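Archive entry: two folds, one per protein. Generate the first.
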Amino acid sequence: MSSALSLATARLAFSHTPRLDAELLMAHALGVRREAMLLRHLDDPAPAAFAGLAERRAEHEPVAYITGARDFWTISLRVAPGVLIPRADTETLLEAAVAHFGTRSPRTVLDLGTGSGALLLAALDQWPEARGIGVDRSPDALAVAGANARRLGMADRARIVAGGWEGRDGPHDLILCNPPYIELGADLRREVAGYEPAAALFAGPDGLDDHRAIAPLLRARIAPGGVACIEIGSGQGESAAALFRAEGLKVGVRRDLAGRDRCLVVTP
């Protein structure tokens, strides 16, 4: 197995994380967690299924679509083609929310553009007393998010419903949103451009079309003492914040672990 991992790692050199990719695919072929594979199976023969999985990755298919899973915050999610793959950068929104509420817990959470349900379900795992709504226009996203809520035992606290940026019900203590924010024509890695849904990526010439749509709708949805945490691209801190300030909202910008602008922290 060690030899197979080394060969796959060399073949996946285009990836930012070739060895990790190979290990995740090997663990998936074995039907175990990566940690268990590293601890107990490195001396085993490589399973026959591994070669096919590595071949798919060599074609730049994302690991999460091949394995059907992605860890995010404190939960593990099922993911599938047609739904955006959750990124570690998006955890910045949850960090901002935790900082805002401190020892308090939000009672209600609204996740706009819920996708796989990542933000909503991570928030409900963080705050077991909370209830929430995940809204999305995509039938694929609604199916995946609903299945994730059921698998994680949160179906009684998480409603997954069809809708747009106007959201549902409220006002809500916590609003989370990872809208499309990539400018049209941007040069993306093949594994993103070739596999992930364009509707979840692109938002007009400057990447801010969806933020423009969200800004005028937000005030009525935020409860007193609440907060909205909205993802942005790394160069959009000031331009995106200005859209919400123009609606009379207070806006701060929180950076991700790499020091890049990543989250608007919006309060009434």
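Generate the second and append.
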Amino acid sequence: MHIQQGVTVTAERVVLCTNGYTDDLWPQMHRSISRSIMPKGHVSSDARNLLLCYRIDHTGRLLMGGRGTFREPVPGQAGDWSHLENVVGKLFPQAAAIPIAYRWCGHVAITRDYLPHLHEPAPGLLIDIGCQGRGVGLQTRMGQALAAYIHSGDKAELPVAPSVIKPFPLYGLRRFYVSAVIGWYRFTDRGV
């Protein structure tokens, strides 16, 4: 058997266990399989009001995220995750019957205009906030821009100009009105 790096191995029996990494290890083998969910490894999100995002991780697992309940999900309570489980089958029918191995939750920061914000409330203090659940890719690039700005002091390095901090109106009631907005968005997103 000839290995790509030029090393030769001699053995009575050989087992190839490459799965999605078969490439050209054995002639024509890679043409006999196909990754059917995001085969190029792209990260994706959709245009719903309540964002759904999905990608394949480094182990080949499908990761999906989306807005859950306003309260913390209860472990073992199926209803808290059912909206994501149902959409897996709609987006990727070939994964509909595959059990979900892990679930986790967290918070996202949402701004009034649904855009990321930079604030500079005092000289030398820069605040970056409001990714709306799109933080992984967005913040990688934002971190590069912030580092360039800190190094140069040139605000032209920033992708958006720092703005004034504007609190949500009636912030103390946000649990009520955000829950109502989430309910409305779930209703309007049903056809998407």
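Annotation attached to the second fold: The radius of gyration is 23 Å. The chain has two domains: 37-111+168-192, 113-165.
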